[in-house]
Write a structure and sequence with these properties.
630 residues; alpha/beta; Rossmann fold; Helicase, Ruva Protein, domain 3; Methane Monooxygenase Hydroxylase, Chain G, domain 1; six-stranded mixed sheet; four-stranded mixed sheet; elongated; binds adenosine-5'-diphosphate; binds zinc ion
């Protein structure tokens, strides 16, 4: 088709040029020119046989039958002369012929029209090529030299796996289902936070059933030109129908499937609308026994266009959440298969220490740990490497190069010791896992608590304790060093957040009552849509109660630290030397301090300023600790 256009175009252009040149050739024959004076002289001498007039242009033939051309400035006065000399006169209208007129007007239009048509055809051809390449490049044929991903590679999400097994059975043996008239879903929507294994699961289905796997992302369809996305969608399904049974996977479907007017859309509304429509039309278009399964993944199910979820489209919804401890252990087992881990390493500990980690983060953790172990030329990955890797992922890389003044380090030591001591003193708080004054990422120091289990509901007491622990940093600086610093900023912000939520959202305040004033944030991305829907007097109550809550917690932190002042000083000193302490070491220091305190209360000798562990039963541990880390 475009080739035809092309030849036609060329033909027409050649034709037009030919016509033109013929026309001009006729008009402007290249004759030798004669000066007008000479012409008049020749006329007087009776040398001119004939003239042809066209306006002022004169073509003349002399008696020797030679032809010349010349131009007359005044034809009217020339004519009588010609007549008296009996010259043969012919003449022609000097206005161009009507044919010529039409040609000059229509020709440019015709040429333009053809150029336009031609370039459009070319563009269409290009997008057609692009699109078929686009589809062909994104299909994976498992079982042709590629190691298929199977359900064994996906761990920790048993429910989702169970549901999708049915689809695998269907793809493997569609006849078994269609024989009984059973209808298998065409579309399955996988929803869950990023990194929970949605893509992996989709690939595993293809790997298990050994069918072609078309892998796209929603952003593949979002292009500058309106209509490209839609044509790609059509192309995909055209190709997919040739290769049934097969799986079409669209990751991040929210890029095209977002509700009109919803956030998260790139590209024009028109383009997205067209692409979405094309997708819906295609999904409605193939029949249930065509064995194409369309899988889509999103982490924003809330913004999807409701049309996508109608029966016959993505009517099957599978939610995937970050794994729990058991799930994490299984995922760790899958990913540690590729690496060498020490016999002493207990993966259960690692799983326990990584609440909230998704599959992708766990995979990353194993890889980081392997990198760290390799850097230190270890034979196998040890527990330390996992700890280091976790810190790195959660808080950022150790800022070893940063220079910290002595005073700052002291402030940090007291601050972190304060968090730790308050946490240790409170009954329902998570146990301390690690205290450190090595700055990482944005945080200067860090006190890490290990949750006993994945929590889904928090008690009021637990939340209050969290606020108290946050306030412990500031309180310790005041009690130990008699100062307030900016280092408490993050603590104060987070304490305030919890307190506000307790009062306005979780109904945990007696004065305000069991009312939720703030709208809970929607979606996994947690865009807070806190709308104030309460009166001014309620606002005042809320402000007052939040304030009271935080102040009470602060007072409690101060009280604990005043009581444990000796422990605080001791812990801070040791932190300054060792930089990092774990729970066990902290227990030893606590015992040591309690003993010292007891001794102090007996005799009134002035307390020694420096490290005091030498005299206590835990001295061996304390000194060992110091030696190890210096
Ligand atoms: P999503 O599509 O949900 O964002 P992916 O499927 O792309 O997440 O996961 C990224 C990587 O994380 C996978 O390639 C895999 O290595 C790892 N991963 C995620 N979830 C799991 C899981 N349940 N089991 C094993 N590995 C997982
Ligand atoms: Zn702090």
């Amino acid at each position: 088709m475009p080739r035809l256009f092309y030849s036609l175009f060329i033909l027409i252009v050649i034709g037009i040029i030919g016509a033109f040149s013929a026309l001009f050739w006729n008009l402007e024959q290249t004759l030798p020119t004669l000066k007008y004076n000479d012409f008049l002289t020749s006329l007087d001498n009776n040398d001119i046989a004939a003239v042809h007039l066209k306006g002022g242009n004169i073509t003349l033939t002399d008696t020797a039958n030679r032809k010349f051309s010349t131009f007359s400035p005044d034809v009217t006065s020339l004519l009588p002369k010609l007549l008296t000399k009996k010259v043969t006169i012919t003449a022609e209208n000097d206005k161009p012929s009507p044919f010529f007129n039409i040609l000059t007007i229509t020709l440019p239009i015709v040429i333009l029209f053809f150029i336009l048509l031609f370039s459009l055809a070319k563009k269409q051809q290009q997008t057609d090529d692009d699109n078929s390449d686009f589809t062909k490049n994104k299909v994976i044929h498992y079982g042709k030299g590629i190691n298929p991903i199977t359900f064994d590679d996906v761990a920790g999400i048993p429910e989702a796996k169970e549901e999708l097994r049915e689809i695998v059975n269907f793809l493997k043996n569609p006849r078994k289902f269609s024989r009984l008239g059973a209808i298998i879903p065409k579309g399955v929507l996988l929803q869950g936070p990023p990194g929970t294994g949605k893509t992996l699961l989709a690939k595993a289905i293809a790997g298990e059933s050994k069918v072609p796997f078309f892998n796209f992302s929603g952003s593949d369809f979002v292009e500058m030109f309106v209509g490209v996305g839609a044509s790609r969608v059509r192309d995909i399904f055209r190709e997919a129908k040739k290769q049934t049974p097969c799986i079409v996977f669209i990751d991040e479907i929210d890029a095209v499937g977002a509700r009109r007017g919803a956030a998260g859309g790139v590209g024009g509304q028109d383009e997205r609308g067209q692409t979405l429509n094309a997708l819906l039309v295609e999904m409605d278009g193939f029949s249930h026994d065509e064995t194409i399964i369309v899988l889509a993944a999103t982490n924003r199910p809330d913004i999807l266009d409701p049309a996508l979820r109608r029966p016959g489209r993505f009517d099957r919804l599978i939610s995937i959440l970050p794994p729990d401890v058991k799930g994490r252990l299984k995922i760790l087992k899958v990913h540690t298969k590729r690496v060498t881990i020490s016999d002493k390493l207990d993966l259960k500990d690692v799983a326990q220490n990584t609440p909230g980690f998704t599959g992708a983060e766990l995979a990353n953790l194993v890889n980081e740990a392997a990198l760290i172990a390799a850097r230190e030329n270890k034979a196998a990955i040890e527990q330390d490497d996992f700890n280091e890797a976790k810190d790195r992922i959660m808080i950022g890389i150790e800022r070893k190069g940063m220079v910290i003044s002595k005073d700052d380090r002291r402030t940090m030591a007291f601050h972190e010791a304060g968090h730790a001591i308050v946490a240790k003193a409170l009954p329902e708080a998570d146990p301390i896992q690690k205290i450190t004054i090595v700055p990482r990422g944005r945080a200067m120091g860090h006190t890490q608590q290990q949750p006993l289990s994945d929590r889904h509901a928090y008690t009021k007491q637990y939340l209050q304790n969290r606020i108290t622990i946050f306030m412990g940093g500031r309180a310790a600086e005041e009690i130990g060093l008699n100062q307030q610093t900016t280092g408490a900023e993050d603590d104060l912000v987070r304490a305030m957040q919890i307190a506000t939520k307790m009062v306005c959202q979780w109904g945990m305040n007696d004065v305000v009552g069991p009312l939720a004033y703030a709208k809970a944030s929607e979606g996994f991305l947690g865009d807070d849509l806190n709308q104030t829907l309460y009166s001014e007097s309620t606002a005042r109550h809320i402000d007052m109660e939040v304030r009271k809550l935080v102040e009470n917690c602060y007072a409690e932190a101060r009280e604990i630290l005043t009581r444990e002042k000796h422990f605080l000083g001791h812990l801070a000193e040791i932190l300054l030397q060792t930089e990092t302490l774990d729970n066990e070491e902290m227990e030893i220091i606590a015992d040591c301090s309690a003993k010292k305190q007891h001794d102090l209360e007996k005799d009134t000798e002035s307390p020694p300023q420096q490290h005091e562990c030498m005299t206590c039963p835990a001295a061996a541990h304390c000194t060992n600790m110091n030696l190890e880390s210096t």
